[in-house]
Amino acid sequence: PTTIYLQDYKPFGWIIDDVHLTFRLHPTATRVISRIRFRPDYDVTDRPFFLHGEDLKHISAKVDGHDIELRHVDGGIEADVPHAPFNWEAEVEINPEANTALEGLYRSNSMYCTQCEAEGFRKITWYPDRPDVMAQFTVRIESTAEHTPVMLSNGNGLFYQQDQTQPGAPNVSIYQDPWPKPAYLFALVAGDLVAHEDRFATMSGKDVSLAIWVRPGDEHKCAFGMEALKKSMKWDEDVYGREYDLDEFNIVAVDDFNMGAMENKGLNIFNSSCVLASPETSTDGNFERIEAIIAHEYFHNWTGNRITCRDWFQLCLKEGLTVYRDQQFTADMRSAPVARISNVLALRARQFPEDQGPLSHPVRPESFQEINNFYTATVYEKGAEVIGMLKTLVGDANYSKALDLYFERHDGDAATIEDWLQVFEDATGRDLGQFKRWYSQSGTPKVTVSEAWSEDGTLTLTFRQETAPTPGQEQKEPQVIPVNVGLLNPNGDEVMETRTLELTEAEQSFSFSGHSARPVPSILRGFSAPVILEQNMDNARRAFLLAHDTDPFNRWEAGRMLSRDALMSAIIDGAAINSDYLDGLKAVLRDDTLDPAYRALMLGQPTQSELAGLLHQAGHTPDPSRIHTASEAMRDAKATALADLLPTLYHDNQVSGTFSPEAEPAGKRALANAALALISRGDGGTLAAEQYDQADNMTQQLAALSCLLDAGTGAQQLAAFENQWSQDRLVMDKWFSLQIIHANPEDVVETTRRLTHHMDFDWKNPNRFRAVMGALQMHHAGFHHEGGDAYELLADWLIRLDPVNPQTTARMCTAFQTWRRYDAPRQEMISAQLDRIAAQEGLSGDASEMISRIRG
Ligand code: DPP
Ligand code: ZN
């Protein structure tokens, strides 16, 4: 495998004016004819003519109408071409049916579809498959009418012909995309699809036709996605001044898809799990996620498509910014504090372990073997945090000014992080030299704070920042860390509103004077930087902040720290769950002025894998079984301490009438169902069984079933659920996952194994594979159960999947990234499995890069 380095970037040397593609679709022998106008880029002196290509059956190639000899080299072809403008014409044959890797053009349930990001276009035809080559595409699709009545590509539909007079006569459709784009944004879809249609009038009065295309039978699952799309279009106009730029916007739902969704210009392709929604089949969590992903892909139209990336090292340029934008959107559509807490929970669950383990890499990596392996929580979620910090540092008005300049200056460009930061420097006059370290330095900074009070009324906060070494980076430099701080007086009133302290040095102090009594600081409000904050605070102080903090994030965080510390003591010393936490929690839950969704989050507790990470950081070897026991003890303690309150929370938050996925009723359901989970620990599942029987939506049904499985009394409902939903693939994914998630640790492997023998365990479908194997690795105590059977089972399946779908295999290898946290026997067992995977003949480049990085 070859390693590619950022510092080796070279421009292509040729400019493409336009690309004409003709597809003659056939399940096993699709012909692709490309006609491309190339001209030399005279700014570049060294212009070897190299085109990417993989798994292509070459038919012919011509330059200016004459056959040309191609030299087949690693990953593509070279040819001797004139150093002057010329017309290229080539024909290749590809096999969509055999394409189980789901990159390039493939068939899924007799539907043709494409996935070209990052490097899939090279599996379609010879082409400079790199994001800095942007061109206008015209696409002609031909196929027989009975199989593919609908044929779509990027841009605007120009022509469509369906010949029904002669059996077997071809359909033709032609699309033209007026906006130059890199090949990774190319898309084609053809199949028997039906549309849920609507229209949108843009801010300048242009009429856009919108469609969500699905397989017949899924029409009733499109309405919510369509509303989300229209809200996204409006929001991007209102908040960023960005208008849509084509006559049509199409979304297609596909069952077999490696990612969540893909922002192809004018033709977004979605994993059906990320767009199809109905009250009967989708939970509130599904609705919220779908809304965010539709927004995310739509927002890419400007941040990603109109302004794209120069090379794949710049991936965070589009992903970090677009995640940041979709997070802002969710905060505006729903509750901002709840959205912020949810984002931080996700960051801590996915990005922190990555950044603190062998896969740690900078937000902008400097080398890779397989770019697919860098679609990570670091690039996406930490990338978004970096933008949030930038906004905090420059302020809202300057952020808007910088973004306007970014769109104005770089529209049509393939840009870099340097371009992005330059725009901020030019718009604000601020030097971002040190801030740039957020893009190049990996690892999670640890910020330690200490307090000093002097009787003249001054509180001094001293901060120290430190980042542990990460693979390839021994030395770390201080970063610019915006720390939002507020002060409360001993009565709980805010005496200093939130202000931003800028940490730039390894150690730094800030003083706040003029206080008559010692104030209580609330530090890192809103989680203003993606760091680990170490603050020596006793339970009384945490309980005070839980009761009084005016910053909703830090108020929640105070409760979180109390429950975390209680869990840690239970794990380390076998201590009982302390009452400070339970009393504080009770007070918050009783407070009806607080949003139910927020109170539902308050009832949560750190996950077992988060606890394992914290123990490891604190110098302990995590014992998965002890962690599990303590977590269950915490739930029991809450169930007991809140026994009087839980029925009220449950009954007061029932929602009646027609189901609505809006934030308010969803929040009530979240709180009622969190209460139900605790009630079920005491009543053997009676109330949950009642709810299950009465449920008329998936949120209520699934929550009840989860409680029943936890109580060990859900066998009958589980069977009924399967019976009811056996025809719905997305619901059946839940059915598969649920049984593993709620199994006892000692039963997890057996349950998983049994499910892999189920006739609906279609392991080549990424959603189904993840539903089962993802659940296995997420069950902390089950996955790490003594004996290591789960490690072996997962490795067996990774070995089996790799030749079929390397990308999904490589992604799932991350289950092993935390292996060095555990005791010697577990490390040995995992290491043996890593060796076994690595030793597979023909192991994909994707998986082999991941395994070797994880091994370290
Ligand atoms: N489809 C992926 C995303 O939107 C990759 N661009 O993040
Ligand atoms: Zn994205």
TrEMBL record:
Ranges where the Peptidase M1 membrane alanine aminopeptidase domain occurs: 224-438
GO biological process: proteolysis
Residue intervals of the Aminopeptidase N-like N-terminal domain: 91-185
Top-level class of the enzyme under EC nomenclature: hydrolase
InterPro entries found in the cross-reference section: Aminopeptidase_N-like_N (IPR045357), Aminopeptidase_N-like_N_sf (IPR042097), PepN_Ig-like_sf (IPR038438), Peptidase_M1 (IPR001930), Peptidase_M1_dom (IPR014782), Peptidase_M1_pepN (IPR012779), Peptidase_M1_pepN_C (IPR024601), Peptidase_M1_pepN_C_sf (IPR037144)
Reactions the enzyme catalyzes: Release of an N-terminal amino acid, Xaa-|-Yaa- from a peptide, amide or arylamide. Xaa is preferably Ala, but may be most amino acids including Pro (slow action). When a terminal hydrophobic residue is followed by a prolyl residue, the two may be released as an intact Xaa-Pro dipeptide
Name of a matching Pfam family: DUF3458_C
Source domain of life: Bacteria
Cofactor: Zn(2+)
Domain Peptidase M1 alanyl aminopeptidase Ig-like fold residues, every copy: 443-535
Coiled coil: none
Record key words, sorted: Aminopeptidase, Hydrolase, Metal-binding, Metalloprotease, Protease, Zinc
Domain called Peptidase M1 alanyl aminopeptidase C-terminal: residue spans: 541-854
Annotated EC: 3.4.11.2
Example GO molecular function: alanyl aminopeptidase activity
Matching PANTHER family: PUROMYCIN-SENSITIVE AMINOPEPTIDASE
Family, per entry: Belongs to the peptidase M1 family.
Full protein name: Aminopeptidase N
Source organism of this protein record: Shimia abyssi
